[in-house]
């Protein structure tokens, strides 16, 4: 990949190419494994690691199992460009070989079907992070768009099991009380894989500074996301994304900041599923039919924007991926 193809400076292109670039969350809505053909967009943007969601609370738990099986098979069938991640060493090997490393995540614990034993199963299938509730309350805890009742006994049991197997506790999409109680309960570093600063834009999906500080105190990271509704009135622009990065760098230190772009693939979905999902996006918080989202192609532009703002090479490498790598090393087993 050349500087010209990314439309950035030679200095930024060289840094971006050499750095480990980790996107902590991609919002694929599973329908068939063939959708993964769009992973080429991430690979050509210089992304080295991508966490794909297998499902979220709006979808049946069985769909997550089907997605895991289908995605793993697809990755095996395309070994020249992709690598299924089992360990941190796999990520480093993929980087050396010029491949995109694939991990999985779950957005909400409805995927567990009320069974703690599912945590170990999902870990073996490649899930390396899971959040509690996708916007609305469930058996494990409260969502950010609901009357947050806090972490439940089931949620606490799940945290213990996640800590045991090495799965990252993710507090994005969760309510304030649930996230703070989960951070306190976890014996391992926690993350907000894709959450922006509510101090900059007062949206319920964003998080307050004390949530971010509590996360960082565990040794965790906060991943800034590219959804326009969460960035502010200016919408889905790299400049606004970097403003949220700046905020967290000043608040937490550069070693606790990452990126979870949440670039959503907008392939067609069946109407019943879409209608059900809309229940998780209250109209007062989600005006309009479609959200604007920073695409994966913008990752090189983020590198250049950080350079222009005076970030050092080391700080940029951390934000692009090394900070998340450090957390993975601390938690994954």
Short description:
This protein is α/β, with parallel strands linked by helices and 333 residues long.
Describe the structure.
- This protein is an alpha/beta fold and 333 residues long.
- It has a single domain (3-277, 289-331), classed as TIM Barrel (Alpha-Beta Barrel).
- The protein has helices spanning 3-6, 10-18, 39-44, 61-76, 88-97, 118-125, 153-165, 176-185, 209-217, 228-231, 238-252, 271-278, 299-308, 313-331; strands at 22-26, 49-56, 82-84, 100-107, 127-131, 168-170, 190-192, 221-224, 257-259.
- Strands 1, 2, 3, 4, 5, 6, 7, 8 and 9 form a nine-stranded parallel beta sheet that branches.
- Strand 7 (190-192), helix 9 (209-217) and strand 8 form a beta-alpha-beta unit.
SSE string, helices as H and strands as E: HHEHEHEHEHEHEHEHEHHEHHH
CA(first)-CA(last) distance: 33 Å
Mind telling me the CATH class?
A: Alpha Beta
Helix content: 40-55%
Number of domains: 1
The number of strands is 9
Rg (C-alpha, Å): 18 Å
Oligomer: single chain
Low-confidence spans = 267-273
Number of helices: 14
Which features characterize this protein?
9-stranded parallel beta sheet; 9 strands; 333 residues; globular; alpha/beta; TIM Barrel
